[in-house]
Amino acid sequence: MKNYIIRRILQMIPVFLGILFILFFILEQAPGTPASNMMNPKMTPEQKAELTQKLGLETPWYERFVNWVAEALHGNLGYSINHKKPVTEVISDYVKPTLLLALISLIIAVLIGVPAGIISATKQYTAIDNVFTVISLIGVSIPSFFFGLLLLKAFAVDIQFFPLFGLKDPLLMSTSPVDKALDVAWHLVLPSIVLGLGSTATFMRYTRSSMLEVIRQDYIRTARAKGLREKTVIYRHAFRNAIIPIITLFGFWIPSLLSGAVVTETIFALPGLGKISVEASFTRNYPLILGINAMLSILTLIGALVADILYAVADPRIRYD
């Protein structure tokens, strides 16, 4: 296992560089440059050329890519002119709400989606199965921005039970950490439901499909013929063998939730990576876009590695030599 992990980490390096190269190339093909939003129409050509030179845009894009990678190896992801601070500091300032939102949404998805998928599979074609199937189809099909607006209209505007936007109440006078944590949790209820709905539906459908395939196997019939309790057959024998596709989904879903938070954070005006990603796209803040996507790429590669390791934990028959 140790040799396999080392080999996989070494393989991740060229893949990561390839992802960054493609991303850098795509940004270069986009219309405009980071200097476009900073140029005054009254600027002379000499002043425009001077601004371009100050931003380091006069060199070919592939040279800038090599320079960016060299600086990134030393922890320097560039400078965000809009925020007037290094990209690493900008990401560290905004990453906590996004990670918290993604973590809560993932917990909701796993705790609800997986058990619902198991129940749906064990009670195939019953009323419960039909209800869960309809709910999962709605969760997969409904756009997150539309569902978020519906929740805001119902619970923040009409009923005014939840806050309309933001991560904390500006009128909160208490300095207690418990009160602050409860205030943040209250603001994250609706965004977590919006972001977790699609995840819950996906986990439910994957679990149901995998469980239906497993419970038809001969060893499941043999376990039942031996007189084992139905819960033991389902959860100890069937679910353990059906968990492999779920682990695959779990490994890739964390970076997916982080990227999916862009829409949710924009709707609820949360100060997270999603919100500043949208702003960076509009203002052509390429260093920040590169930094955020580099972080998401690393999380995706790590998620794939963690999923492979969990395969061996879930199924002893899987060995990495």
Q: Could you explain how this protein is built, in words?
A:
With 321 residues, this protein is mostly helical. It has a domain at 96-283: MetI-like (MetI-like fold). 74% of the residues lie in helices and 1% in strands. It has helices at 2-29, 45-54, 61-72, 87-122, 127-141, 144-158, 177-187, 189-214, 218-225, 230-268, 273-282, 286-314, and strands spanning 79-80, 85-86. A two-stranded antiparallel sheet has the order 1-2. A hairpin with a 4-residue loop joins strand 1 and strand 2 (85-86).
Tell me the distance between the termini: 6 Å
Can you tell me the CATH class of one domain?
Answer: Mainly Alpha
Helix % is over 70%
What letter string, H or E per element, gives the SSE order? HHHEEHHHHHHHHH
Share in β-strands? under 5%
Principal-axes shape call: globular
CATH topology of one domain: MetI-like fold
Stretches where pLDDT falls below 50 for ≥5 residues?
Answer: none
* Widest sheet: strand ordering: 1-2
Tally of helical runs: 12
Number of strands: 2
Which structural class fits the helix and strand makeup? mainly alpha
CATH superfamily grouping of one domain: MetI-like
